[in-house]
Structures are given as structure tokens and as C-alpha cells.
Amino acid sequence: MALQGLRTGDSFDIVLFAGDTTYFDSGLVPVSPDAIEQAHRYLGTIQLRPSTNIDLALTTALAMPDVNVVVLITDGVPTSGETDFKKLARNVRNANRYHARIDTVGLIGRNPDGTDNSFEATQLLQQIAKDSGGQFRTATVGVATPD
User: Fold this and answer.
1) Residue 17's beta-bridge partner residues?
2) Region 67-78: what's the mean pLDDT?
3) What SS3 class is residue 69?
4) Domain for residue 146, yes or no?
5) Residue 4, in any domain of the structure
6) Which of 12, 57, 81, 109 could, after both became Cys, cross-link 17 (CB 3.0–4.6 A)?
7) Residue 80's domain is classified under what CATH number?
8) Is residue 18 predicted with pLDDT exceeding 60?
9) How many domains does the chain have?
10) Which residues are CB-neighbours of 86 under 8 A, at least 6 positions away?
């Protein structure tokens, strides 16, 4: 859906963050029908891996020249890199030297081990979005837990 919302004149990249980071491209890619098609193919090859390094993902994305919007889609529970939510939010604020807007999408539901960190993860993602003037949204995946 994010790729479909891109317009001529926009640029994008995709940064995956499971422990380390991997990229669709080494920098921002101008939007074109071919680039969008390649990005869809790239997304189709992704296999889920354990480990969520939000700190590295955001500091990497925010360091890209000319980045002005970052969309973070995650369960919001950092399991590698910085895992302390307050320190992580502070690291993101410090890394956002160019004042990019960070929109966050929290994937809410039970973890594979049955635990549920949705509340804490939601607070982190709301804070990251708020600090940058971005928007926070949620999407329920797996088994949603009652309030």
C-alpha cells in the first residue's frame, strides 16, 4: 500500500531490520513504474527472520541524504540493538538531524510465544511519530488481545 501511494517526483527505499539492515537499494530511488515493480518483487522475496533492530533501522533510514519521510512498520518490540524504549526514542530524536517526518504503523497482536507487548510497543511508536510530527496507526495481526 505504501508503494502505491508514491507519486512522480517522490523517491523511496526499503530498509529491512532483522538484527542487521538490508536494503532494496543503496539510496533513495526515484519513483517510476519500473522501480515500483522491482520493489514489489523485492518485497515478495522477504522471509521473516527473528530479531527486530528498530534503532539501527531508523538511524540508517534517517542518515540517507534527502530523506524527509520515513514509514516504520513493525510490531514495535525491539529485540536487538537498543531495546530500552526510552533510550530508543531518544536515539531516534538525535538521529533525525534533517527533521524527517516518521509515520509509524504498529502491528498489534500476540507474539509467537503467547506474550503480548502491544501496549509498550504502541507507546514507543506513538512517541517516535509524535516527536517527528508523524502519524501513528495500528494494524491487527495474528491474535488480537482484549484491552
Assistant:
1) 21
2) 87
3) strand
4) no
5) no
6) 57
7) 3.40.50.410
8) yes
9) 1
10) none
Length in residues, the chain: 147
The CA distances from residue 131 to 22, 74, 96, 101, in Å, are 26, 18, 10, 9
DSSP, residue by residue, 77-142: ---SS---HHHHHHHHHHH-TT--EEEEEEEES--TTS---HHHHHHHHHHHHHHHT--EEEEE-S
- Can you tell me which residue has the cell 496507526? 137
Domain containing 76 equals 11-140
Per-residue pLDDT tens digits for 35-45: 999 999 999 99
Residue 147 lies in a domain: no
- What three-state secondary structure class fits 72? strand
Compute the average pLDDT of residues 17-29.
Answer: 87
